[in-house]
Structure formats: C-alpha cells, structure tokens
What does this fold into?
Amino acid sequence: MGEETDLLRSPLHDRHVALGAKFAEFGGWTMPLEYPSGVVKEHTAVREGVGIFDVSHLGKAAVTGPGTTAFLNATLTNDLGRIGPGRAQYTLCCDDETGGIVDDLIAYVHDDERVLLVPNAANTAEVVRRLRAAAPDGVTVTDRHRDEFVLAVQGRHADAVLTKVGLPVGHDYMSFAQAEVDGAEVFVCRSGYTGERGYELIGDNAAAGHLWDALMEAGEEFGMLPCGLGARDTLRTEMGYPLHGQDISPEVTPNEARLGWAVGWSKESFWGKDVLLAEKEAGPRRRLVALKSTGRAIPRPHMSVSLTPDVLLGEVTSGTFSPTLRTGIGLALVASVVAPDAQVGVDVRGRREIFQLTSPPFVDTSVREGA
It folds into this structure.
C-alpha cells in the first residue's frame, strides 16, 4: 500500500520496514500484513514452533479509582467476580438497548482499583466514550491506545524464547505476571489469538524497540518468524475465534455469536442484560456456525449460505484457506433452523459449493497446555 500519513503507526514501524513487511490499514493503523516469508510460512511457524506478532494497534484503556472492578462488573458482560488480581478475562461491551456487541475485549485485573482493558483498535474510542459517560465519581477511564505496545509470542517454543530474555513464564492460562524492561513495567499474560500456547506482552512504548530486538535474537534458535495480520487471521479462523467487524458487531448479540459463556447471566446488572436474557429464553433467530469445505472451494466474507438452492440461510462472515488442513474453512451467520451437522451450500463465484457444518476449533492446539 502507499504511504498513508493519516494512519497511526506502531512504535516498531521502522523495524517492520527494515524486515521488508507488506503493510495494510487496520483499525486506523498501518500494520504488517505479512513479511517476505509469506502468510503460510508464518502460520506454520506458529503452529509448529514459534512466531512473534506486533499487535500494538490493539486498544489500551486504563480504568482506575475506588470501585473500578464493581463499575466494570456492572457494565461489561463477564463476571469479574470469577477472577482476582493477576488474572485476565475475555468479556463483551454490549449496547444496553439492543444487546448488540459494541466490542469484545480483554480485562486485566491488577486490583480492585486498577483494570487495563484491551479492546479492538477501531472500537477503542467508542468503548472509552461509553465507559466515561457511565463512570461514577472517582473512577477514571484513560485512553492509552497510542502509549503502549502489545507483542504476542505464540507457539510451543514461546516459553523458551521469553526465558532467554528474562521474562517470567509458566503461569496459568489467562493470568499475567509483571516484569521490567529498560526500567519500564511490562505485563506478560498467558493468552493469545492463535490457539497455541503463548504470551502477550504489554508495556510503555519506550521499551518496545529493545524488547522486540531481544526477542527476535532469542527466537533465532527456534526458527521464530515475525508474523503479520494475515497469519493472525488464518490462525484465529482455524480456532473459530470471532473477529469484531466481521463475525460480531453491534448488529450481532452474544447469543447469536455463541458467546454466552462470556456473559455472567446471574449478575445483578450488565449492559444489555434484559434484552439478552429475553433473547436467550426465546432462542436467537440466527447463530454463528463453523463450516468446512467438502471439496476445494474457499469461502469468503459475504458469500451466501443456503440449505437448498431455494432456501437462503445467511452469509459467510469469515472465510479462508486453512494452511493446517489444506482446505477451505470459515464462519457464517445463519438461521437457527439449520441442524448443527447439516451440509450447506456456499455461493462461490456463482457455483454452489458444498460445506459441512462443524464445531470449532478446526484444529487441535495447545492453548491451555500447562494451565
């Protein structure tokens, strides 16, 4: 892509340029799409060894002050009461009137008065706006979107790479530990968006360059590759992880997206509770499903999905070629009437190709290994 001066840049942008990265716009940022190694090799490095991603475009919002966890627990869907300090939790910010998913995000709980939220890049401003408007006296919501980096080291050798640079490893899945790099605080969380065992590192931009260089050097022994958003997308699709703006959106509810496990249904309140409870009891009219090609076809977003040539069910929301399975896979939002194991047709460039509905993930991985 050409140089876009109005797009935000990662603090590691110059390093990606030096590595020969191909860039793309994502959520208002220019980020590496792939490196000269290519998406398939980057994908395979993560599945079979280890890869490193710069995902500094992800949002960062610090919520602080007395009553912070109680405030977030009364607004976001998941139940922060299930976890304590040093833990992270996947949760949703829903619209109070419609129940639609404004964003999905991770909450990092430091203590009752300090929580870091990591929303999607394009939705950070809206999440911050809604939380600020609802925050009680004493609770502050600070947008740190441009101030902190996020790196993801993913794959079975991730522990070894982090150990070589002196970062803490081995803690439980969805927990985090503190470290120091160049005098700056860095949080090391056992999480990721690839399905493999790995870590996400968050810290002040001033420490980003030194940490990236150290990790790249440490990873050479294990064949670690820098990976772009292209491989991140194929990896998350193989896991059936939804992407906001494609599979989930303000027009899609947690019930439809099969994200009810991220909702604290017994909580006294959260945004959208009443409408979501009513929808849950009645049953959602559509649902997000996983589908796998029975032939050579590759699904792409917005391709129509049908039960028979005359019975339209919905459309593909995410679709790609699976480097691991060597076949086409995807997610689709379809009418709830379809059986979970049905075969459906996808309109691929005017041809009705047959796909099998299945349950994600599409591949077996080690994401919770050692948890």
